[in-house]
Design goal:
By secondary structure, this protein is mainly β. The protein has one helix and 14 strands, in the order αββββββββββββββ. A hairpin with a 5-residue loop joins β3 and β4 (67-72). The longest helix has 11 residues, at 3-13. It is globular, with a radius of gyration of 23 Å.
């Protein structure tokens, strides 16, 4: 038996391996819907418009008289719908001035939308009479929570599934191979995210960084990679050091 054939047999017998590593390139999400600020709740029923005159945001009521936010793309197509409550909030944002290269704090106060319940977002180019689903999930107290499913351009095939707790990635993740419309999507990658309390460098003084404990969202445990036939080809273990 030659060495090449022996290597092939070993790979067939042992289809995956386990290694210690860590990936800090996490996906970025907007954890909350866009904020508007009004003086009182009466103002918060007003319609918001784009510069081209198309509606950006308007409010309706569902069959249970819950207030529903309908947000639109600039081309007039529906972007998403979600139930909202009007809450008084105080937010601080950091603004960067590209003319002066200075960072300044902006303080916002007023009534704004807090999303809750089912959220459904649609692709930009769809016909508003037949919207194509892009994202589905749940909001709780204004933050993404539970399972969020992302779909391809047909609106039928799952591309990824993320799990959130209070707007943070936490729990199972699944990524799928591209599939034909109405066909069953095959898993490409699956694993778990988790918030881990670990050592981190804090640069209060650039020359003397301090080691502090910080909660960091990261991949944890075994992450599995499959081929497009459904065969497990690799397992990577993400340590929590």
């Amino acid at each position: 038996m030659n060495k090449t054939l022996l290597l092939i047999l070993i790979f067939k017998i042992s289809p995956f391996n386990s290694i210690l590593s860590q990936d800090y390139t996490l996906p970025e999400f907007t954890d909350r819907i866009e904020h508007f600020y009004w003086v009182d709740t009466i103002d918060s029923n007003q319609i918001k418009y784009f510069d081209n005159g198309n509606i950006k945001v308007k409010y309706t009521r569902d069959e249970n008289n819950n207030k529903v936010r309908n947000q639109y793309y600039e081309n007039g197509n529906l972007k998403y719908v979600v139930k909202v409550k009007q809450v008084y909030r105080r937010d601080t944002t950091m603004m960067f001035d590209y003319d002066t290269y200075d960072e300044t704090l902006e303080f916002h106060t007023g009534y704004g939308d807090m999303a809750y319940g089912t959220y459904e977002e649609y692709y930009y180019y769809h016909n508003s009479n037949h919207p194509i689903i892009k994202t589905q999930g749940q909001y709780e107290n204004g933050y993404k929570t539970g399972k969020w499913t992302y779909h391809n351009h047909s609106g039928h095939i799952q591309t990824t599934i993320y799990t959130f707790i209070d707007g943070d990635l936490s729990g199972p993740f699944i990524s799928y191979y591209p599939s034909y419309k109405f066909s069953e999507a095959k898993i490409k990658i699956k694993g778990n995210y988790k918030k881990v309390n670990m050592n981190s460098l804090f640069y209060y003084d650039i020359d003397n960084p301090e080691i502090i404990k910080e909660d960091i969202i990261r991949r944890v445990g075994d992450w599995e990679l499959y081929d497009n036939l459904g065969n497990l080809i690799e397992v990577v273990n993400y340590s929590q050091k």
